[in-house]
Amino acid sequence: MNRPLKKIIQSTLAEFDDAKPNTAYYDPQLANLATYYNSQPTKAFYWVVEDQQKVVGCGGFGPFADSKIAELQKLYFLPAARGFGLGKKLF
Prior knowledge:
3 helices
């Protein structure tokens, strides 16, 4: 499951010319998002969107730095899955 998520995130960032240092493209947790979100000391949620048993997107919420503020994290979709309101449903 982690490999397709990493590919979606990195390919989307590259598509929009944002495969740059200090972006999600280089986040070390991309190799194992499930473990990362399950190991958070505070509540964090991450969802995977599938269409016909193929991963087409992902997104979640997690703590911002070491605060009590949450942020939308790593919300990305393959081009074919965009425009259907899937991001709104996750949000």
